[in-house]
Amino acid sequence: MDPTQVATATVPAPVSALTLGVVGLGYVGLPTALAFVAAGGRVVGYDVSDARRAAIARGEVDLLSRDLDRLATLDGDDRLVLTGDPTQLATADAVVVCVPTPVDEHLTPDLTALRAASAVVVEQARPGQLLVLTSTTYVGTTRDLLEAPLRARGLEPGVDVFVAFSPERIDPANENFPVEATPRVVGGLTPACTRRAVDVLGRMAPRMHEVSSPEAAEMTKLHENTFRAVNLAYVNEIADVCQRLGLDVAEVVGAAATKPFGFMPFTPGPGVGGHCIPCDPHYLLWQLRADRTDAPLVEATMKAIAARPGRVVQRARDVLAEAGRPLAGARVLVLGVAYKPGVADVRESPALEIIERLRRGGAAVSFTDQHVDRVRVAGAQLTSVDAPWRTAWDLVVVHTLHADVDTHWLAHAGAVLDATYRLAGVDCERV
C-alpha cells in the first residue's frame, strides 16, 4: 500500500467534509444518522429493507419529535442518502454498524443480522476507512467479525483501516438524552483506531470515554444493561413483598430515593421489554456457559424477568376470582401494549405474553394503545380498540401508560389491575 494513503487517512477531516455510512436504519441507526447530519456531516444510510427505507422517506417512523423535524427538512437533500446498494458504503469515510442483536426462542443470541452486516462492511472496506460496531453483543465480536476478516483481505487494522467498538446508548422516547447528549464509550483495536473513532463519533457526542480495547467497550454495554436487569427484577420482587405486607411500593421507593447517595430508584412493572434488557444479559450468559463459568445472580435475574408476565396473569385471575368471575369467558382489556411509554415498539413487550396467557386461559382479550394499531399474538392479529370506555370490561390490565393517554374513564371501568404502579386517581389493584 502507498504509505501516503495511510498518512492522509489518519488526518481527521472537517465534519463538513466527512461522510458517515450507517448500516441499519432502525431505532439506533436512524437517530445516529440524523445526529451526524445535524453536526454538519453527510450520511449514506444503508438498510436491506425496502419497506424501512420507504417508511423513512415518508417520515413514517418512530422518532423523537426533534428527529422527526430533522428528517422532514432532509426530504430530497443529498446530506442523507438512503440506499440498498452496499457498494455505496465504500464512499464513506467512516462506517458504523447499527443492526439488531436479538435472542431466539431458546434465549440464544441471534447474530444473523450482525454477521451479515459485518460481512458487507468488510467486503466494501477501503484503505483509510473507520469501521465501528455499535450493536450490543458478546465480548470479542469486533475481533471475530471485523478484525479477522479484514486481515484475511490484507487490511491491517490501525494501519490500513481503523476498527473500534462503541456501544449505542439510545433510549427511545427519552427527550432528555438523545444521541448528542449522551457520552460514548469507545475502544479501538489499536490506539490509532481509538483516536480515529473518538474524532469521528465525538462530533455528535458531548463526551468520549476511551477504554483499552474493543472487549472492554463490549463488556461495558453488557454491564450497563445487566445492571438494569438486576435492579428491575429486584424492584419487582420488592413490589411483591410490599403487597404481602400491605405497603405501597411506590411510597417505599419514593422515600428511599430521598437518600442522596448509595441508592438509585427503579420502578416495578409488568415485566421488561424492548430490544435491550430482555436480550443483552443473555449474550453474557451464553458466552459464560461456553466457558463453563457461572453467573448465578444474572441467571436468577433473567429467570425472574421471564416469570413476571405470568405473575401478572395470575394476579388477574385472583382479581377476577375475588369478584366472582372466572378467567374463562371474562372480557379483559390490556391498556397499552408498547414495551415502554412513548414508543410504538412492541419488541419483547410483556403485553404480548400476558395477552397470550390470558387467551389461553379462555379470556376474551382486547387491547388499546394509541401508538400501536395492531399486534400479532400466537398467530392471531388483534386491532387496537378506539373507544374502550364504550365497552363493559370484566377487568382492565394497565400495562403501558403513555403520557397522552386518557385514564379518567377507568374510574368507572370496574376491576382495574395496575401493572405499572403509576396509575393515579383510580381505585385499582396492583400486581
What features would you describe in this structure?
One of its GO terms (biological process) is polysaccharide biosynthetic process. Pfam families: UDPG_MGDP_dh (PF00984), UDPG_MGDP_dh_C (PF03720), UDPG_MGDP_dh_N (PF03721). By secondary structure, this protein is of the alpha/beta class. The protein has 2 domains: 198 residues, Rossmann fold (3-Layer(aba) Sandwich), CATH 3.40.50.720; 124 residues, 3-Layer(aba) Sandwich (Rossmann fold). 37% of the residues lie in helices and 14% in strands. The protein is built from 12 helices and 15 strands. The strands form 3 sheets. Strands 3-2-1-4-5-6-7-8 form an 8-stranded mixed β-sheet, with helices on both faces. The longest helix is centred in the middle third of the chain and has 31 residues. The chain is globular, with a radius of gyration of 24 Å. The N terminus is likely disordered.
Question: Would you summarize the structure shown here?
Answer:
By secondary structure, the chain is α/β, with parallel strands linked by helices. 37% of the residues lie in helices and 14% in strands.
The whole-angstrom Rg is 24 Å
Low-confidence stretches: 1-13
Helical segment tally?
12
Helix content: 25-40%
Query: What is the CATH C-level name of the largest domain?
Result: Alpha Beta
Total count of domains: 2
Find the count of extended strands (DSSP E, 2+ residues).
15
SSE pattern: HEHEHHEEHEHEEHEHHHHEHEEEEEE
